[in-house]
Amino acid sequence: MMEVKDVVSWTTMRDIEIEAxxxxxxxxxxxxxxxxxxxGHLGVEDFDEAFEVFHRMILCGEQPSKSSxxxxxxxxxxxxxxxxxxxxxxxxxxxxxxxxxxxxxxVWAAMIQGLAENGFAEESLQxxxxxxxx
Length: 134
Known about the structure:
Elements: H1 7-22, H2 36-43, H3 47-59, H4 66-69, H5 73-86, H6 90-99, H7 105-117, H8 121-133
Helix pairs in contact: 1-2, 2-3, 5-6, 5-7, 6-7, 7-8
PPR repeats: 104-134
Keywords: Repeat
Protein name: Pentatricopeptide repeat-containing protein
């Protein structure tokens, strides 16, 4: 029996329930839902797993709606920004960053780090300065 019941344990239990329902048996990785799996992983900053869940949803034909992600838009955008930066697609990261209406410290840090790690030192410093003025 679990002693600590948190978002991770509840998400894992829901993942298993969905897998049983769909007969997938994927080792605790959700493939469908209303975005709650993604929100759970993003809530604990497990961005890689959030993208894995999203990817599996798409592969299984699940069509997420805008309302599925309305409560986690900033998490999804930050994760996308970070993913693109880590894969060297800094232009895509900047596009996502620029379209974001609300930016918290995590968003700014992801953009600053993405720019710096992709060889855009001056842009990274400029972004840091912009953060101080925001």
